[in-house]
Amino acid sequence: MKKIILTAAAMLAFVFSNAQDMKSSSGGQTAKGKWLIEANTGNAMLGSTSFSLATSDGESEYNIGLDGGYFIADNFALKAGLGYGGESVFDSSIFSYRLGAKYYVESMIPVTLDLTGASIKDASENPMWLGIGAGYAIFLGDNVSIEPGLRYNLSLNEDFTDKGIFQLNIGFALHF
Prior knowledge:
Layout: H1 2-21, E1 35-40, E2 52-56, E3 59-73, E4 76-87, E5 92-105, E6 109-120, E7 128-135, E8 138-139, E9 144-155, E10 165-175
Antiparallel strand pairs: 1-3, 1-10, 2-3, 3-4, 4-5, 5-6, 6-7, 7-9, 8-9, 9-10
Signal peptide: 1-19
Protein name: Outer membrane protein beta-barrel domain-containing protein
InterPro entries: OMP/PagP_B-barrel (IPR011250)
């Protein structure tokens, strides 16, 4: 697990150093000084800042959340997110948070690296994940994009779970 964390940290350092060298020619949606607000679909995962709803045999789980970011360099944004969810089985509530970075390769392929955690009501252990994701940004105009992508979440709290989780997400972003 230490190798994976070190590899992810090295990737983030590489992305950050390359983002500093990029020059914006278009001043587009991912230019330095722009903001983004994202809403993502997601699966039922503890520590999610996405929108999800799952119901089976009268038991349901839900989550609502948003991510926001600021482009500190062309194509490179620092992001934060919050989410809130619950489940009917254990009558619990879950507060989630996310801190990370997003880099757009060629202004259209978003690559993310972030730390996601959750605080679960009355739980003795809370999850924490290192997430790595990539996708494709489809810009529908000057301010809106749809970003389907694949994400892997590596558990950092082996006492909670030692399993990683793959996700297929569809993100919707506002750029301004």
